[in-house]
């Protein structure tokens, strides 16, 4: 429009109507219509007042919540339904929501982490756990290779550098023979613990003591049931410290630096061993009897005797192989005996 204003300067002077460039578009259009056209003017449409509708509370809430990321909404929903589902889970337990050990000072009521499944046919509880040996050897590899939350792998490496007679570098750096039980036990021995204290690794020394005493409760003989339970509960208290299962989003593959399977294995094993005292008719049981190593040994022997060496014997050979395995296992249990 400013170009038209400049080009029509002569007409504006003749007509005695000067059009300024600073005018609004509508005013310029009306002036051009009078100067050059039929004199019609641009008429503004009457403004219709807008009506604002007040949203309901649910609509306002949806408007706000719909802007949240899905992971936040999932966490909020899980936190809301967790108490109800936890109560249902606890309600199916034959042991109640928590355990109380009267002979251990300051124990109080300890909530269960693991509860046994109930057999649908017999109605009896099925107590399950990971074997203590596997948990120990896996923990040895974990702490020496990566460490866990609050526990540095350098503690074991410095002990090996300081005095190789206590523990060698091949055990903590090369991790030779990861499944050997004696190496795992020595990694958490009292000698290693004392050297850690001397080198200033106090937290790692406490950790070493907790692990050693827990495994002694799992494996050693002649330890009173109360002392076994006390050691297990101390290790359990360490694992559960600063961990909340009612907070969301939950932990992923690792909890306090422990792989999830290992972490749950420790806690379920501890709870299952304590629950067995209530399930055993005599009120006590052989600690080593609650293990998967016997099954592994049995099927390992079956694999050794299988002539195909494929671990998948033919059906027609099963009866003969099972008889041979039973005979070998019998002699292993009592080499002096020659009668089956």
Write structural notes for this entry:
By secondary structure, the chain is mainly alpha-helical. The protein folds into 3 domains: 2-36, no CATH class; 64-282, no CATH class; 293-333, no CATH class. The chain has 15 helices and 6 strands. It has helices spanning 2-7, 9-15, 25-36, 57-65, 70-91, 132-145, 154-162, 169-172, 181-187, 190-199, 202-219, 225-240, 260-279, 293-305, 318-333; strands at 98-100, 109-111, 117-118, 125-126, 254-255, 258-259. The strands form 3 sheets. It has a two-stranded antiparallel sheet with strand order 1-2. The protein has a two-stranded antiparallel sheet with strand order 3-4. It has a two-stranded antiparallel ribbon with strand order 5-6. A hairpin with a 2-residue loop joins β5 and β6 (258-259). The longest helix has 22 residues, at 70-91. It is elongated, with a radius of gyration of 39 Å. The mean pLDDT is 84.
Give the total of domains.
3
Tally of DSSP β-strands: 6
Which series of helices and strands comes N to C? HHHHHEEEEHHHHHHHEEHHH
Total helical segments = 15
Looking at the structure, what is the overall shape? elongated
Which percent range describes the beta-strand content? under 5%
What is the end-to-end distance? Answer: 115 Å
Mean pLDDT across all amino acids: 84
Fraction of residues in H or I helices: 40-55%
How is the main sheet built?
A: 2 strands, antiparallel
User: Roughly how many Å is the radius of gyration?
Assistant: 39 Å
Unreliable stretches (pLDDT < 50, length at least 5) are: none
């Amino acid at each position: 429009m400013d170009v038209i204003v400049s080009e029509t300067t002569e007409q504006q002077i003749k007509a005695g109507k000067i059009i300024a460039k600073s005018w609004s578009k509508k005013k310029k259009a009306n002036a051009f219509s009078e100067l050059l056209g039929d004199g019609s003017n641009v008429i503004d449409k009457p403004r219709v007042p807008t009506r604002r509708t007040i949203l309901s509370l649910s609509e306002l809430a949806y408007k706000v919540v719909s802007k949240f990321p899905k992971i936040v909404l999932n966490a909020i929903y899980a936190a809301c339904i967790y108490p109800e589902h936890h109560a249902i889970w606890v309600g199916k337990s034959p042991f109640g929501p928590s355990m109380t050990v009267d002979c251990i000072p300051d124990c109080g009521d300890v909530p269960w982490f693991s509860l046994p499944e109930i057999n649908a046919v017999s109605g009896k509880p099925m107590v399950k756990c990971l074997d203590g040996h596997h948990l120990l050897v896996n923990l040895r590899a974990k702490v020496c290779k990566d460490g866990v939350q609050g526990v540095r792998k350098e503690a074991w490496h410095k002990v090996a550098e300081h005095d190789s007679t206590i523990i060698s570098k091949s055990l903590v750096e090369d991790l030779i023979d990861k499944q050997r039980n004696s190496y795992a036990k020595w990694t958490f021995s009292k000698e290693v613990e004392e050297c850690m204290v001397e080198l200033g690794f106090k937290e790692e020394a406490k950790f070493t003591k907790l692990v050693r005493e827990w495994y002694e409760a799992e494996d050693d003989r002649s330890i009173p049931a109360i002392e076994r339970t006390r050691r297990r509960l101390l290790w359990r208290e360490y694992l559960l410290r600063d961990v909340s299962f009612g907070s969301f989003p939950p932990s992923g593959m690792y909890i306090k630096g422990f792989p999830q399977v290992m972490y749950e294995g420790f806690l379920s094993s501890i709870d299952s061993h304590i629950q067995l005292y209530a399930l055993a008719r005599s009120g006590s049981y052989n600690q080593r009897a609650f293990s998967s190593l016997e099954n592994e040994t049995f099927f390992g022997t079956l694999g050794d005797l299988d002539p195909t060496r494929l671990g998948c014997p033919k059906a027609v050979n099963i009866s003969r192989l099972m008889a041979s395995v039973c005979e070998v296992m019998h002699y292993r249990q009592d080499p002096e005996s020659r009668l089956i």
